[in-house]
Amino acid sequence: MAFELKNVVPWGRNLDEYKSMFNLTDAELNKKIISFGDGPASFNYSMFKFNKSVISIDPIYGFSVDELKRKIKETKDIVINQTRNNAENFVWTKIKNIQELETIRLSAMNLFLQDFESGKREGRYINHEMPDKTNFADSTFDLGLSSHFLILYAQLGLDFHLSAMTEMLRVAKEIRIFPILDLDAHKPALLAHLVEHFGKNFKVEIQRVDYEFQKNGNEMLRIKRK
């Protein structure tokens, strides 16, 4: 089945949020990073401006900037209203209210849109749908990230997660996944299976992070070679 933009909910985050979500140190930001399912985040844009190395992959990068603009406009009010209606499921500390959330998200996505066409020409945004194998050689990257994609969408199933994370670990020496809750703010059953499976050959940890917007969503899954 072809990937369709109508099935996407584009919602982007910024560099400061990535640093908090993944406990990224200044030294780690200097490493070669690949970000899976990166969507319309401004992480790549900001890292590029600081002369850092990031490759973002996502199937939405197969669409034009105008198509992405329309989709973001279509879904923005839906996402904001859903968040407002479920406000008790979120922690309103660093982000104080719905209005600030909207401002932060739109700012990140607008930076992405400004950067998208040039970034795509430069090979920083790559159209690719997981869990298909990427074109990168083994251990090309020091660090692989997955923000609000794997585990959050637990309905993709265990086999999808195993295949996607196996490919991530092929091209990156270490991967980090945030959050480790599903869309209902629960730890999904597949999390334990993933920890057990990858724990056989990798060092697997669940670590606290300096970020919590989804209530109890302040942990990441970290997997690296022993």
Task: Give the structure's gist in a few sentences.
With 226 residues, the protein is of the alpha/beta class. The protein has helices at residues 15-21, 26-29, 43-49, 65-85, 98-121, 158-171, 190-199; strands at 33-36, 54-57, 125-126, 143-147, 174-178, 202-208, 219-225.
Write the layout of secondary structure elements.
Elements: H1 15-21, H2 26-29, E1 33-36, H3 43-49, E2 54-57, H4 65-85, H5 98-121, E3 125-126, E4 143-147, H6 158-171, E5 174-178, H7 190-199, E6 202-208, E7 219-225
Parallel strand pairs: 1-2, 1-4, 2-3, 4-5
Antiparallel strand pairs: 5-7, 6-7
Helix pairs in contact: 4-5
Structural class: alpha/beta
Indicate how many domains the architecture comprises. 1
The CATH architecture classification is 3-Layer(aba) Sandwich
Shape: globular
Question: What is the CATH superfamily?
Answer: Vaccinia Virus protein VP39
Q: What is the name of the CATH topology?
A: Rossmann fold
Total strand segments? 7
Protein name: SAM-dependent methyltransferase
GO molecular function: methyltransferase activity
Keywords: Methyltransferase, Transferase
List key phrases describing it.
disordered N terminus; about 230 residues; Rossmann fold; alpha/beta; 7 helices; globular; about 15% strand
Task: Tell me about this structure.
- With 226 residues, the chain is of the alpha/beta class.
- The chain has a single domain, classed as Vaccinia Virus protein VP39 (Rossmann fold), CATH 3.40.50.150.
- Helices cover 38% and strands 15% of the residues.
- It has helices at 15-21, 26-29, 43-49, 65-85, 98-121, 158-171, 190-199; strands spanning 33-36, 54-57, 125-126, 143-147, 174-178, 202-208, 219-225.
- A seven-stranded mixed β-sheet has the order 3-2-1-4-5-7-6, sandwiched between helices.
- Strand 4, helix 6 and strand 5 form a beta-alpha-beta unit.
- Helix 4 runs antiparallel to helix 5 (98-121).
- The chain starts with 14 loop residues before the first helix and ends with a strand.
- The model is unreliable at 1-5 (pLDDT under 50).
